[in-house]
Amino acid sequence: VQAPIPCQLDAEDFILRFLHSSRVNPDGSVNSGAFSLRADPELSVAIEKLIPAESMERFCALKIGQGLAKVRVDEIRALGLDARPDKEPEWGDFADAHAVITGHAQWSNNRKDEAARALRNAANAWGVVRPPTK
Amino acid sequence: MPHDPESQPTGFSPLGIGRFLSVSSPGVLLDAQDKLLLHTKQALVSGSVLVGVARHEALHGFFHGFFTANVRASSEPMQLIWETNFVQAAKVYVSYTLPANDPWSQSATDELNRFKGLRGNWDAEGASPFARTTLDSARAVLQKVTDLCRNSGIQTRPAIVPLPDGSIRFEWANGDKELFLTVRKKEVEAQRWQPFNSVRSVGYKSIRPNQVDSELSWLAG
User: Fold this and answer.
1) Which of A31, A115, A118 is facing B171, going by the closest CB pair?
2) Where are the beta strands (DSSP E) in B39-186?
3) What pLDDT, on the 0 to 100 scale, is given for residue B218?
4) Which of A131, B42, B83, B98 has the most CB atoms around its CB within 10 Å?
5) Interfacial B residues in 141-160 facing A (CB < 8 Å)
6) For B113-167, how does the pLDDT look when each residue is reduced to its tens digit (9 = 90+)?
7) Which chain A residue has its CA at the smallest distance from B111's CA?
8) What is the maximum alpha-carbon separation in chain A?
9) What is the pTM of this model?
């Protein structure tokens, strides 16, 4: 039996980020809180290409009421961060679609916030994939 | 919101210029109203102030002046010109009234109050709750922001963003500039960006909540 080949993230792949309702402004745009790097050395995201369109509703049920934003991998890497697959058993059928943004553990708050703001801008340029429902 | 009057001495003369300091809260307030009670008899006040608009009325031997619009509080004395041969008092009594809060200010206050009730893991990703000192500091910053909104003519309003580490951010873009004020306990981290599409901030410093005026002035300027 051959072990599954880990997913490779290419520069043009998209990652998805769950959006708590506080991450979306009244005008519908995403704020920097969506990509805040202050709390953890890894930011939880999902690999869009591993979530079939027909499974999107089930995927969103992982965090009821939350929305989705997306950014491209090359936009993350341009900031000195990286995105890598990181299997998450709690995601059940979508465990392999889980990934993390890393590389900021030793950064200053200033640099973390610069990156969060840049990712916010990138997400707003692509448009909110799915707004939160509560 | 009326505030307690403050008595201030003035240098009266039969024909001359008096000065008084606004007692409105520090900052620049649009439509704040300073009420001046001058204890005189038969004072004829031709009335003007350095900034703002004066109107006056004589009532029961007292002069009441109301100074509104662009009252620059605690920064420079207002100047009052009067003519009278019957000045008997040597003090003015100043109080002030703030205009009603605008809808954004009220919703922002409500938002901060809502944060108070958030428990740990409120974002389903392990976010921290908000300390009382952080909320108090955020309210102080909000007051400064509200003052600026009233007076500067700035058209945008900041987003108030709860962050997973228990800090609260005022995230405010205006034209080609953006300002982050990130409040945590008794500190505010201030970051500036210009032009808007730049990645690197052009300024970063840690200040106290009562020191955000210069940051706000930069954004509005």
Assistant:
1) A31
2) 53-59, 62-68, 71-73, 78-83, 91-97, 159-162, 168-174, 177-184
3) 95
4) B98
5) 159
6) 999 999 999 999 999 999 999 999 999 999 999 988 887 878 889 999 999 999 9
7) A22
8) 52
9) 0.73
